[in-house]
Amino acid sequence: MSASLPRTTREVRLASVPVGLPTRDHFVVTEAPLPEPGADRVLVRNRHFLVFPGLRTLIGGEVDGVPLPALRPGDALFGPCVGEVVAAPAGGPLRPGDVVAHLQGWREYALVSAAECAPLGDALPDPVAHLAQGSTAYGALTRLAGVREGDVVFVTGAAGAVGSLAGQIARLLGARRVIGSTGSPWKAERLVAELGYDAVVLRGAGSVADQLAAVAPEGIDVLVDTVAGGQLTAALGAARHGARFALVGALSGQLSARRAGGSAPVEIDAFRLVVKGVSLRGYSGADHPDVEEEWTGRFGAWLRSGEIAFPHVRIAGIDRAPQALQELIEGRHFGAVVVEL
Question: GO MF annotations for this entry (predicted)?
Answer without folding.
Answer: oxidoreductase activity
